[in-house]
Amino acid sequence: MAGRGLKLQIEPSAPPVSFMKLMTFATAGDWAYFACGSFGALLSGATWPVWSVLFGRVINSFNTSDKSKLVDDIRMLAIYFLIVAVVSAFAASMYVTFFTSLGHRQVVRIRSAYFRSLLSQDMSWYDKQQTGVVATYLSSNMTYIQQGVGEKMGGLISSFGRCIVGLAMAFYFGWELALVVLAFLPIMVLGQAVAGRTLAGHA
Question: What percentage of the chain reaches a pLDDT higher than 90?
Fold first, then answer.
């Protein structure tokens, strides 16, 4: 950390930055935070398809005239719901905690490097900057970095786990229907992309 420098260049609009670029100042402890947070996010996302299966079994359990069997099935499903709820709560808390801490740790290091770079600039460099832009970059833009490294990354990994487990369960319970839905997936993704760009243009 001590030997790492930060080339300071303030631009009105900067190009997108990759995740690895944001993790330039990461240490081994930060990567451990990322691994633990990723595990929690994947586990949290994996519980969503399980909820769907359990709800389906609840509905199917009513297709019987045997009341004792119905009571036994509902009792067993209630236990399953409790187990999944505990796992989901633990996983969600785990990934939110680790990714939030990871984002905070990265922002602290980037701010320190940014401030050291400011102190090394010539006075003429400050004369070329607009009033308040240096303080703005030091305060507000770090929020976007913290969100990108923290909660948004955790949400992305959670969605990835949800997608993978959902597809696996879909092929397990009904691969024919899963293939039909998968064939229309590119069309749905394209529609979402167009809708996202349209909303972004009007924002």
Answer: 27
Going from the C-alpha of 132 to that of each of 127, 182, 184, the distances in angstroms are 12, 51, 50
DSSP for the chain, written as a single string: -TT--------SSPPP--HHHHTTT--HHHHHHHHHHHHHHHHHHHHHHHHHHHHHHHHHHTS-S-HHHHHHHHHHHHHHHHHHHHHHHHHHHHHHHHHHHHHHHHHHHHHHHHHHHHHTS-HHHHHTSPTTHHHHHHHTHHHHHHHHHTHHHHHHHHHHHHHHHHHHHHHHHHHHHHHHHHHTHHHHHHHHHHHHHHHHHH-
Q: What is the mean pLDDT of residues 24-44?
A: 91
Q: Give the max Cα distance, the chain.
A: 86
Tokens found for residue 31: 């990567």
pLDDT at 109: 86
Asked which of 3-12, 21-30, 32-41, 183-192 is least confident by mean pLDDT, the reply is 3-12
